[in-house]
Structure formats: C-alpha cells, structure tokens
C-alpha cells in the first residue's frame, strides 16, 4: 500500500485505520469531516469528481477531511471505489506524487483505443516475466499502457485460447480500461466493456 494514502476497506468501516499518512506509525484521530461543496475545490479536486488512482483505477471523490495523525493535522481527499468496496484517503499535498489524477481527456482515450486495436507485440519471454510487465502497466494508471496489455492478451475466435493466467490478466486490464472509458462516456462499465470488445473484434 502506498504510504501516502490511507486505506479503509469494507471490513474496517467502523473507522479503524490500518496505515498512517505520516509514515505508518501512530494513531489517526479523525476531526469533523469537511467535504467540499458545490464548486469548492481542494488540491484541484471537488466532491463528485471522478478520479484515477494508479493501483485501484477509477473512483469518486466523496469529500475532503481533516485528520490528526501522530500530532500532525492533514487534509485528506476521500475517494470511494465502488468496485472494490473501499475508500482511500490521500493527503492533499501528496496527491500529485501518489499518482492521483483526473479522468483522461477524450484524446488520451482515443490514443488508448488506437493502441488497443493495433497489432499485438508479445515478447518471446517467459510468462512470469511478461506477467510482471503487464501488471506494472495495469497499475501505472496510464490508459495507453493498459490498452497495450489488452491488445497483447486478446484472442480472436481463430486464435489459440488464453491460459488461465492470461485470461485473468486480460480481464484485469479490460476492467480497468472499461471503467475509465465508462466514466468519460457517462455510461456503465458493462456497456463500455462491450464496446471495447466490439472494437477489438472489428480491428
């Protein structure tokens, strides 16, 4: 887990913290939550904004909170990830360095789709090595890199079937790409994934 963020999963919804934004030590004491309202922004983010965190994909800002951790008062961007049923809290001052970003522009997504529809460029190396490279691309948060994984692991009807590990990796990349595509297109993830797969079949 990135030390610059505080993770709250469903099992810890009671408010127990499992990490400290100030280095992983000490207890976090939550002060009154101060979510942004309307157009108010903190660190460039406002309540209701869709954002992308590298290792979790698309989430939605649900507010800005102030917490005291090891005697230090921090402003935290609270992000909810519906798919993973978790909430991530990122210090405002660490947001950029943590990799947190706004949704991609239409142009960036077009570039990702162009890459996805391109010719596979699978390297002739052991699967374990390729799997590490693919996982790194998926967790980079970069839609073009994620599209490369989808492209390389996609199998058409006239091609050999994927192995179990390849299917798992392919689905992880497709899910991540589809979520951002859905957020940008204002549609649901299932519809976005269907559109992307139709593009792959037609390529």
Give the SSE layout.
Blueprint: E1 6-9, E2 28-30, E3 50-53, E4 57-69, E5 72-81, E6 86-91, H1 95-98, E7 101-102, H2 106-116, H3 127-138, H4 143-153, H5 164-185, H6 189-202
Antiparallel strand pairs: 1-6, 2-4, 3-4, 3-7, 4-5, 5-6
Q: Which CATH class of the largest domain is shown?
A: Mainly Beta
**C-alpha termini separation:** 37 Å
Tell me the Rg in angstroms.
Answer: 19 Å
Q: What's the overall average pLDDT, rounded? A: 83
CATH topology of the largest domain: Thrombin, subunit H
Q: What's the SSE pattern?
A: EEEEEEHEHHHHH
Can you name the CATH architecture of the largest domain? Beta Barrel
Percentage of residues in strands: 15-25%
Secondary-structure-derived class: alpha+beta
Count of spatially separate domains: 2
What profile does the largest beta sheet have? 7 strands, antiparallel
Shape: elongated
Q: How large is the count of helical segments?
A: 6
How many DSSP E strands? Answer: 7
* pLDDT < 50 stretches: 6-28, 31-40
Q: What is the percent of helical residues?
A: 25-40%
Write a structural description.
The chain is of the alpha+beta class and 203 residues long. The chain has two domains: 6-102, Beta Barrel (Thrombin, subunit H); 106-202, CarD-like, C-terminal domain (Methane Monooxygenase Hydroxylase, Chain G, domain 1, Up-down Bundle). Helices cover 36% and strands 21% of the residues. The chain contains six helices and seven strands; from the N terminus they run E-E-E-E-E-E-H-E-H-H-H-H-H. The chain has helices spanning 95-98, 106-116, 127-138, 143-153, 164-185, 189-202; strands at residues 6-9, 28-30, 50-53, 57-69, 72-81, 86-91, 101-102. Strands 1, 2, 3, 4, 5, 6 and 7 form a seven-stranded antiparallel sheet that branches. Helix 5 (164-185) packs across helix 6. The radius of gyration is 19 Å and the shape is elongated. The two termini are 37 Å apart. The model is unreliable at 6-28 and 31-40 (pLDDT under 50).
